[in-house]
Amino acid sequence: MTTNARPPQRYTPPVTPPPPLASLSALAARRARIHEALADAGSYKLQRAGTVLALAPAREAYALAEGEPALAVWSALAAYRLAHLVMRQERTPDVLEEADALFVEAGRHASLGPYPHVYRLAVLHRLAAPPRTVEAAFKRAVDAYAAWTRPASRAARTDADRNHTAGNHTGRAEGEPSEDALLLPGTIQTELFALLELSGYFLGLAREPLDGRGARLDEPVFQAPHWRLVGPDPALGDVLVSKATADAELLDLAPRVGAAFVFRLPANRNKATLTVGTRDPSPLPHRAARLLACLLRHDARDMDTLVARVMGEEGSGAAFRQVKARLRQQLEDAGVALPAELIVEGPGKPPRLAPSLVALGAVSEQAYLDRE
């Protein structure tokens, strides 16, 4: 019997060639420093009269994020943090103009949802901006809110996910909400604190009564920093971020590094996915996802350690080879051009993904450490 079925088309990475390893190392180091500077700013922010101390690292983080190549996710985060710190100063017209520009910058990226747009309304009010400007800003805030709370964003939080069975192992106790379920849109500080802060902005009140209060880091993308981005440079995995940040960076950086595919290993390990090009995500066995993450992080000193990382202490070499073979087959079926060997080794070097195969992943630390 004849068939018209065609073999899968090979996926061609973006035309822009991936940056050299030195450039990726510089990007990873810059990203790590941005994260450190924002954490410093957040720590100083909790000190009474700590705004002056917090401004310097916040400005450093913003300047680094705006460098070339710009890191859109971190630029939005740094702009948002800096805007709030700027608003703690005496609110002269120049200070308000700077805060306005920073909230606009923070609102360019969807990862912060409607919050930069809402806070900007208070700044525009203090600036006595024209009605047309305020109305346009309010519409952007409403649109951002609609996108942030649309039902599709909550699709993963189903009863099945909340009440999984022991046979569908996820590394959580039965009935415990998934990581996605815990990260509901809007979990910024507390809503009551946000209302107090926003009211103060609108009314032009002194900020001192709120100094030292609020969450340590109040952006939603900084909530629950239990994810890592893994990719061509192992240093990318040195920074723990939130799920929202990891997902946003995955989309932002994949075309920049020329990734042949991207993958996600969420806290519910049975929901790991593989995405090639513009295709819909497909299920990826969790051990295959852990194998990719371990290779990209250079997290095993030798093949024996790699097998233990992927399969658990009781795992066998034969079962590991099966995981590797099935991963290779899944990538080939998706049209990814593969080298002769997925894993390369060398004297004194850890096992790693073949350099010609560029991949990027967002990995939950909980699932990565789950060896069962």
Topology at a glance:
Blueprint: H1 21-45, H2 51-65, H3 72-86, H4 93-106, H5 115-126, H6 131-149, H7 159-162, H8 179-182, H9 191-203, E1 227-230, E2 240-241, H10 243-257, E3 261-265, E4 273-275, E5 282-283, H11 286-297, H12 303-311, H13 317-333, E6 343-346, E7 349-353, E8 359-364, H14 365-369
Parallel strand pairs: 3-8
Antiparallel strand pairs: 1-2, 1-8, 3-4, 4-5, 6-7
What can you tell me about this protein's structure?
With 372 residues, this protein is of the alpha+beta class. The chain is built from 14 helices and 8 strands. The strands form 2 sheets. A 6-stranded mixed sheet has the order 2-1-8-3-4-5, with helices on both faces. A two-stranded antiparallel sheet has the order 6-7. Helix 2 (51-65) runs antiparallel to helix 3, helix 4 runs antiparallel to helix 5 and helix 5 (115-126) runs antiparallel to helix 6. The longest helix has 25 residues, at 21-45. The chain is elongated. Residues 1-18, 152-189 and 215-222 have low confidence and may be disordered.
> Beta-strand percentage?
5-15%
- Mean pLDDT, rounded to whole units? 78
Helix-strand makeup class = alpha+beta
> What overall geometry do the principal axes of the alpha carbons give?
elongated
**Spatial ordering of strands, largest sheet:** 2-1-8-3-4-5
Please count the helical segments: 14
Total E-strand runs: 8
Output the radius of gyration: 23 Å
What composes the largest sheet?
Answer: 6 strands, mixed
Which stretches are low in confidence, meaning pLDDT under 50 for 5 or more residues running?
A: 1-18, 152-189, 215-222
What is the distance, rounded to the nearest whole angstrom, between the alpha carbons of the first and last residues?
45 Å
Helix content: 40-55%
Query: How do the SSEs run, as a string of H and E?
Result: HHHHHHHHHEEHEEEHHHEEEH
